[in-house]
Amino acid sequence: LILKSVDSSIDEKDLLSDIQAIESEVTAIHRIRNAALDKPSSVVRLDVSSETCRDRLLAQRKLVVTPFEFPANYIQPIKIIRCFKCQELGHYANCTNLLKCSKCSGPHAIDKCSSSTEICPNCGDNHRVSYPACKVRLSYINELKNKQFSSIAMDTSVQQQRRSYAAIVQPQSSQLTNRNESINEDILKQVSSVGITVDSLKPDIAILTENFKSQLVYFNQMISNAHVHLNKFIQQLVPTLIKMTKILK
What we know:
alpha+beta; Gag-like protein
């Protein structure tokens, strides 16, 4: 049985004491380490003394330890795989190893064993291969448990990181949206203010335009008059210049 979302800052002894005040059949707790990150995870394993307690917690799907609420899940027991040919753990088919007796480690099957001495084919101690306290067997079980719980711890860590990322990104996104809306409102206000200013200047602009047109007509008339006077002057000057030229010759 495991509990998730147990913050690493929570002391295990204090947590066990609080849990036992609610569920007296919880006998021990163990915080699972995240092997990939090499640090304690937010997953805690519970040892319970009865299936009734286990089933009750699973039915509730959580364990409430005020002010905390921890999701509860069940982990299937470790399945031990043993080859009945070579007696090694971890495989059971397509074995190319030598035949070994599970009682005496001899090169024969158990049904043909005549030895009265028990020798474990895995650890070499004086017991059969199926002995529950065999050190090789216990090491194999611990290795399987570590892999199983490390996988759970990693999954939980990834989920927490996703939640943390969402918790960071969503407020930032909201702040950015609000900031953009505020900027847009300021721009609209400024544009509106410019529009009002332009409207108020329209009468003055119309007067200036009319004055400019009047001045332009006046200047055009002056230029036209100047052309007329210049032509007359030239017409009068040319005969005089011709006469002076003849005299000088």
